[in-house]
UniProtKB/TrEMBL annotation:
Pfam families: Acetyltransf_1. This is Ribosomal protein S18-alanine N-acetyltransferase. It comes from the Bacteria. InterPro entries: AcTrfase_RimI/Ard1 (IPR006464), Acyl_CoA_acyltransferase (IPR016181), GNAT_dom (IPR000182), YpeA/RimI_acetyltransf (IPR050680).
Length: 216
């Protein structure tokens, strides 16, 4: 199965919401997603899609259909054979298996959400989307990244720590479903040579992991 990243469009919203409902206990309205997708001045939302064969448009755009080839797109192959059966959904040819987004205020890029269909978790798709969002942060001239994460979500925390996020505070009873606290995590400047070198190393390892998974 091939996986690739595309910009989220309004027609994707119902499928994004289906994954959201399997991933979180609270969800955004369809109108919220549509508003975020339309706000191209300060927002970037992406989806990960699956395909049984390389889509035709991939060969014409270096592996990235309908997407700007920034950062990760020039360093990683964004269509990856992961050796998994296709997810059967009523969706069209290339089902959405994950999504993520961020918005930028002044010089801060805030990662608003990342989620992967439970069937496709543990394959590096979430990490691939985080890298894509980091590239969009560069594109929007952000200096740093920030996000909130549940105190109980240790898997996500480990991924964020890997990419230079550190715990800088907390929000008491931030999540309305159960009153759980959120950790506030932020990076230092993403423009330092150290950060860029670490990012390059992480991407090299991610690519190697995904390549290994592609082997029968």
């Amino acid at each position: 199965m091939y996986y690739f990243i595309e910009p989220m469009v309004e027609d994707d919203v119902p499928y994004v919401q289906a994954i959201e409902q399997q991933s979180f206990t609270t969800s955004w309205s369809a109108n919220t997603y549509r508003r975020e997708v339309r706000n191209t001045q300060s927002c970037r939302y992406v989806v990960a899609k699956a395909s049984g064969s390389p889509p035709t448009s991939l060969s014409k755009n270096g592996g990235v259909p309908n997407a700007q080839r920034t950062g990760i797109f020039s360093q990683l192959v964004s269509t990856l054979l992961l050796g998994m059966p296709a997810q059967l959904t009523p969706q069209a040819t290339n089902p959405i298996v994950g999504y993520g987004g961020l918005w930028v205020t002044l010089d801060e890029a805030h990662v608003t959400t990342i989620a992967v269909d439970p069937i496709h978790r543990g394959r590096g798709i979430g990490e691939l989307m985080l890298n894509t969002l980091i590239d969009h942060a560069y594109e929007l001239s952000a200096q740093m990244l920030t996000l909130e994460v549940r105190v109980s979500n240790h898997t996500a925390q480990q991924l964020y720590l890997k990419y230079g996020f550190q715990v800088v505070g907390s929000r008491r009873r931030y999540y309305t479903d159960n009153g759980e606290d959120a950790l506030i995590m932020s990076t230092d400047s993403i423009h330092t040579p150290d950060y860029k070198n670490q990012l390059r190393d992480h991407r090299r390892h991610l690519f190697a992991r995904l390549q290994a998974q592609s082997k029968p």
